[in-house]
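Handoff note, outgoing to incoming analyst
You'll be picking up this chain. Sequence as last confirmed:
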Amino acid sequence: MEMATAEMPGFTSTAEWTAQPEDDSTGATAPDTDEFMREAASYWQFRVGEAIHRYYFPAIVITGVVGNTLSFLVMVKPHNRNISTCVYMACLSVSDTLLLLYQGYSIWILPTFNLHPFVPLHCLWNMFTSFGFSMVGSLIITAMTFDKFFAIKFPHKSASFSTPNRAKIIVLIVAVFSVVFNLPQFYVTQLVDGTCMPYARKDIWNQIFMFVSFVFNAVLIFGALIVMNGFIISAVRGRSKLLQTMGNAENTSEMTKQQRSVERQITIMLLLVSFLYLILIGPGFVHFLQWLVVSPTRDPLTYANFVLSYNICQKLFFTNNAVNFFLYCVSGRKFRTDLKSVFCEQAKTPESDSSREASQTALPSSQI
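Most recent structure output, in case you need it:
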């Protein structure tokens, strides 16, 4: 989802955006912009919003890059490469890291250190990459959720459908689709008074693209995730009762119990990633709709409220790109074990590694 990042001018610090107040009677631009900005900056909402951007955002970037790198190293370990969900999670780590690094450079380093203002080419490329990377992440989460949904809905077909190779192909298709879908950003984005603004054109094509983007992200992706996650939770609860009964049977081997434990852990990891995505991205859609109705430059207080709400929603958006590592650590004992092996590779023995691979590949890749 990228709408949450698109409603404010160009991922720049809000201090870099010189608001153009509207004249109450004609709607024309008022002449005293400096006075408008000084009055807006006097409100606590404006100052808190700027503080969130200045101090919280670099913490997100640093934490997210380190966490995503560790997640990637775990997900590409040999015994995880046979698991389709791990392939998706590895690709998601890459997408999230690239988005955080690029946005950290564009909207924090450049304005904070006054290195140089936006130029038209940088503006266009910034918006295209921002929307592109965020859409890739959204679609990977959707594909990963569908992978688990399909495995539960059609268990007899999951072994042939939910394979690592198919996951790689789907990720490639997602990347190409995101590039093509966001090509209109080069048309609708404009540099306005030194500020990079998406959806800045005033023609029908801009309105159509904005509407299609919102419907695709806010309705289709959100709706699909809610429906599929609801089905997965219902199915997992029903299966847990069945497995609890089966677990009491004498013929249930220890290997089977371990396989079920691994499946349960990765399912929980997937659900946490999906639901946190919905929670952290959702406010951005509300924010987008709110400021379509209310002009943020109507008066200084409205603009100060806009600065605060924008920075909260934008940083929630970026938090989504930084927290998956912690979700994996909390919900997956297998992930924590693999993470330790990243730092203590010599502690493993060939026998332990091969036995773990055998236990995990005994199930279809999507079922782990």
